[in-house]
Specification:
mainly alpha; DNA primase large subunit C-terminal domain-containing protein; single chain; globular; metal-binding; DNA_primase_lsu_euk/arc; iron
Length: 151
Amino acid sequence: MALSNHNAIDFNLFEPKAPTGEDKIRLSDLDYYSRKHMPPCMKTLYTALKNQHHLKHYGRLQLGLFLKGVGLTLDESLRFWKSEFTRKSDIDADKFEKQYAYNIRHSYGQEGKRNDYKPWNCAKTINLTQPGPGEYHGCPFKTFNDDTLVQ
């Protein structure tokens, strides 16, 4: 069942589309949408974040751009990540601001080159580096074994 021949698939069909108006997801809706509507890659990242209150760089970037793409504002995104990360005993609000907030603002085009970064499509996600220990980024159809996919 694993996606071994992913090069034969046209992943341009899976370009993320930005929601408008009523289609935008609010921060208060994330838990519901994570259970019902997120693609497997995002559900994996969201679940890992909720369980461990932290994601490594590529996981933060992949999930963060997805959340931006479904309509979370910069302010909502900062509140979301801060509320999760500060649940860990070794990350307080000051450490979050110093080590993580800049990258979130950067992904929204508010820091650095001020690029408006888009959510990653399937092709980009599939071609990410293989996740190491404690990492959850990438495409589950590429990185998970059949038993894990069935769960």
